[in-house]
Write a structure and sequence with these properties.
- The complex is a heterotrimer of chains A (about 170), B (about 100) and C (about 550).
- Chain A has four helices and twelve strands.
- Chain A has helices at about 35-45, 85-95, 115-120, 130-135, and strands at about 5, 10, 15, 30, 35, 50-55, 70-75, 100-105, 125, 145, 155, 165.
- In chain A, the strands form three sheets. Chain A has a seven-stranded mixed sheet. Chain A has a three-stranded antiparallel sheet with strand order 10-12-11, with no helix packed on it. In chain A, strands 3-4 form a two-stranded parallel sheet.
- Chain A is globular.
- The relative contact order of chain A is 0.14.
- In chain B, about 25% of the residues lie in helices and about 30% in strands.
- In chain B, a hairpin with a 5-residue loop joins β1 (about 5-10) and β2 (about 15-20).
- The chains are: A alpha/beta (about 170), B alpha+beta (about 100), C alpha+beta (about 550).
- At the A-C interface, α2, α3 and β10 of A face α1, α2, α5, α6 and α9 of C.
């Protein structure tokens, strides 16, 4: 069972669906578009509130003209060790200035969640049992001292310009 | 089909182990259970899968051996080295592998 | 050398706690092996033939006596009493238990050591010239930059799941003692016409299945742009490096398939966007890090000259050791000592716990408490007064580490090979031992001169055989070991990949083959000052092929 987690807690009634052969978006649900579909649909209408699924080989910079019309960008981790989405997320936040919801989908495991957060991802589609359990307990295997600036805002670290520290919990 | 034994590495300490007749993972190849028929090999593989799932061992594999005068001899050099350890003096108090056993 | 501040201590402690939690979850079964594997790799834990292997990071090969003693303690307490120094300046333990590792890492943390990112598809130990800060020919010390890169690359969230491993090396002299051209990124620290510090940047070097020499993609990268440019390279690699085939996943393949010029252009585009961001290095930060690497205050020790001459006269073995294992230091009263970890017939790169303790003592008393690990699997004492060389030598004799063979034929580099490694096809250590014994005679070694033999037990080339003057690659053929010989490789500033000479040799024939190669060299060299590598480059492979294979055509194995 897939649940959506944000730092504020688990989200109920998330409308977004990644359609497959078996699964289609139903009443009150919205379909995540592929990058190509998004570009076509956005170019031929004035619609807003799109959701798009970025696959590892996609060029995330193609989203630039459509950012303010996107409600959700999902970045895919088809295997947890396919790290391209970390760069997609970083570029979306730092280069493109995207500010809406950025979601990790796919093989989302607890040990990668802290890294994803630092790359600017702020929501997570989680099915792994341990991940759900640890997120429920708010026990992330985090190291709150950072040796590099990343997409996510952080406190300045001590002594050197590249260091950062986790912001105190809100 | 040749004779086979089941081997793996223990999860806690990584030490190379073999499955014996009582279903215990032991550190000596010579104590391993030998499978001589296809059904026995299938049974070994199933035990291996279960031990992996039970988090006892990792890197489970079925290995070819030859039995001569009661001594089990893996056909692959790699497995012979796994059975006996490094083939030279490497630390005081630890015996190197027997060159006769290792030899091709 | 660099000393941890509060931030570093906190980070390492948090990392140990994180790994302790991961190990506990693994042992309880809550975390499955395939999810655990990349996590344990990023903490330096491999599974090998006989046991786990733990690779401890020795940043740019620099450590002090306290750290060396801790390594000895770990060897003694958690392992079988020894460790192995590697071709990336790290240390490997071959028998630790997974269940002990969090405790081992906690102990290492007390002396500012760790095993972070010594494996895994992430940025590995940044290596540097083992003579940094001491060599007479150095333009600038590369280690401050290696330290900055080390910090910046530690648990970098964007670059923890790269297509494959990533290795960076830095050198600060014209002579390249860090083999930068066979690294994913090679940095040559230099000064421009205005005397400003910067780097020539090489990308896409590597050994393994497809050895490639790195391409120069930037002539001069200003110091302040080090992190932004490196980020640009990493991001291009992370996004475009191949992930479909493990053997084509290094950046060298991306450079090769994209073309160096096009790749450099892609990097420049990304770099342009990063150049003036918070990644710019402030001068003050560089200065602060550099201050850690200030050379020790070296007192004048002019008495060394006279004493040295006298001692050498009195003891020819000592004289030979000074000649071979002591290199010129910036300061004329001092020398850089190579402690050979290649005793005749020994295991290259191994040291026992008592040897480590003794080296720590010697370093503390005579070498300003500084030790280096070279990528050639030896230890270095970079600052030793000539006046103390005799004492150092006696100390090394007492522990069996006084072999006067630095750079000579018995100073062999060998990977652990099939005696230890799950990836290996053949053994390396016994081959090295036999060659060492055959050529052990000091006079003969001196006659042969500089000759770097490097042995790998499989195509992954951890023994760096591609850049050996003589390289040996162990393969498996019909269930038996076979060794392919390459000639003419070099990892210095004139990097070359060794050429396969012909069909391979059975283990019992290898040493004779080496002997034939050496005899051929001795027969055709211009004079003793023409080293093997130079002679090979002058005459090419044919004389050696003829000697090894006779007149029959030699097909590559």
């Amino acid at each position: 069972m897939t649940r959506i987690w944000r730092e504020t807690g688990f989200v109920e009634n998330d409308p977004w669906v990644i359609e497959t052969e078996e699964v289609k978006a139903g009443e009150g649900e919205k379909r995540l578009l592929s990058l190509d579909e998004l570009i076509v649909k956005a170019d031929e209408s004035n619609e807003v509130g799109f959701g798009v699924l970025i696959k590892p080989a996609d060029d995330v910079r193609k989203l630039e003209p459509y950012l303010d019309r996107l409600e959700l960008v999902a970045v895919a981790f088809p295997a947890f060790n396919d790290g391209r989405a970390f760069s997609h997320a970083s570029l979306l936040r730092e280069r493109l200035g995207y500010t809406n919801e950025l979601r990790a989908v796919g093989d989302v495991l607890i040990d990668q969640v802290p890294l994803m957060l630092r790359c600017g991802i702020d929501s997570f589609a989680v099915s792994n049992e341990t991940a759900i359990k640890r997120l429920t307990e708010r026990r992330l295997p985090e190291i709150p001292h950072y040796y590099q600036p990343t997409a996510r805002d952080a406190e300045p670290g001590k002594s050197y310009s590249w260091r950062r520290q986790a912001k105190p919990a809100a | 089909m040749g004779d086979k034994v089941l081997t793996a590495n223990r999860l806690t300490d990584g030490i190379a182990v073999w499955l014996d007749a009582t279903g215990t993972w032991v550190t000596s190849l010579q104590d391993a259970l030998v499978a001589r028929h296809a059904e026995a090999v299938t049974a070994l593989e199933a035990i291996g899968k279960k031990s992996y799932a039970d988090n006892l061992v990792v890197d489970v594999a079925v290995v070819d051996v030859q039995e001569t005068d009661g001594v089990l001899w893996p056909l692959r050099l790699r497995e012979r080295i796994r059975a006996q350890g490094p083939t030279m003096e490497y630390a005081p108090g630890y015996k190197p592998a027997d060159p006769a056993f290792i030899a091709v | 050398m660099y000393r941890y501040d509060e931030f570093d201590h906190a980070f390492v402690a948090e990392r140990v706690a994180q790994f302790r939690d991961q190990v506990q979850r693994r042992l309880s079964g809550e975390l499955a092996e395939d999810a655990f594997k990349p996590l344990r790799l990023m903490n330096g834990v491999y599974l090998q033939l006989h046991a786990y292997m733990l690779r401890i990071a020795i940043p740019y090969g620099t450590l002090n006596s306290k750290q060396m003693r801790m390594l000895a303690h770990v060897a003694r307490t958690y392992d079988r009493g020894y460790g192995h120094f590697t071709t990336r300046q790290n240390l490997q333990f071959n028998w630790p238990k997974l269940s002990d590792m969090p405790d081992v890492l906690a102990e290492l943390a007390t002396v500012e050591m760790h095993a972070i990112q010594t494996s895994g598809n992430c940025i590995r130990n940044v290596t540097a010239d083992h003579f940094a800060g001491a060599a007479a020919d150095e333009v600038a010390d590369p280690r401050p930059y290696a330290e900055i890169l080390r910090q910046w690359s530690s648990v970098h969230p964007e670059f923890s799941f790269l297509p494959r491993k990533f290795k960076i090396a830095v050198t600060g002299a014209e002579r390249d003692r860090a083999a930068i051209q066979v690294h994913d990124i090679g940095l040559h620290l230099k000064k421009n016409d205005k005397g400003e510090i910067g780097f020539a940047v090489y990308v896409g070097g590597g050994q393994g299945r497809t050895p490639m020499i790195a391409k120069l993609i930037k002539d001069f990268l200003p110091e302040e742009d080090l992190l932004s440019y490196t980020t640009a390279v990493m991001r291009v690699y992370n996004l475009h490096g191949r992930r479909d085939n493990k053997y084509k996943a290094r950046i060298k393949i991306l450079v090769h398939e994209t073309g160096a010029e096009e790749l450099a252009r892609q990097v420049e585009v990304e770099f342009a966007a990063l150049k003036d961001t918070e990644l710019k290095l402030p001068e003050a930060d560089v200065a602060a890090i550099t201050a850690y690497f200030a050379p020790p205050a070296l007192p004048q020790r002019a008495e060394g000259w006279e004493n040295l001459a006298r001692w050498k006269k009195a003891d020819p073995d000592f004289a030979r050791w000074v000649h071979q294992n002591v290199q010129p230091h910036k300061n004329p009263d001092y020398g850089m000592v190579t402690i050979s970890l290649k005793p005749i017939g020994g295991i290259p790169g191994d040291a026992s716990d008592s040897q480590m303790d003794a080296v720590a003592d010697i370093a503390e008393e005579y070498a300003f408490d500084e030790i280096r690990v070279s990528h050639e699997q030896n230890l270095i004492l970079p600052h030793v007064a000539l006046a103390d060389l005799e004492s150092v030598y006696r100390g090394l004799v007492a522990i069996g580490l006084a072999e006067a063979n630095a750079g000579l034929i018995t100073d062999i580099i060998a990977c652990p090979g099939l005696d230890y490694c799950a990836l290996a096809n053949a053994r390396s250590i016994p081959v090295a031992q036999e060659i060492s014994r055959r050529f052990g005679n000091p006079e003969r070694q001196a006659e042969i001169g500089e000759l770097k033999i490097k042995i790998s037990g499989c195509i992954n080339a951890c023994g760096h055989h591609h850049v050996g003057h003589i390289g040996l690659l162990g393969v498996e053929k019909k269930g038996a070991e076979l060794y392919q010989i390459t000639l003419g490789g070099s990892g210095d500033e004139h990097t070359s990949i060794g050429e396969i000479i012909g069909r391979g040799f059975e283990p019992e024939k290898v040493t004779d083959a080496i002997e034939k190669i050496v005899d051929t060299y001795l027969g055709l060299r211009n004079d003793p000052s023409e080293i093997f590598l130079d002679a090979y480059r002058r005459v090419g492979p044919q004389p050696f092929k003829d000697a090894l294979y006779g007149d029959s055509k030699a097909e590559a194995a």
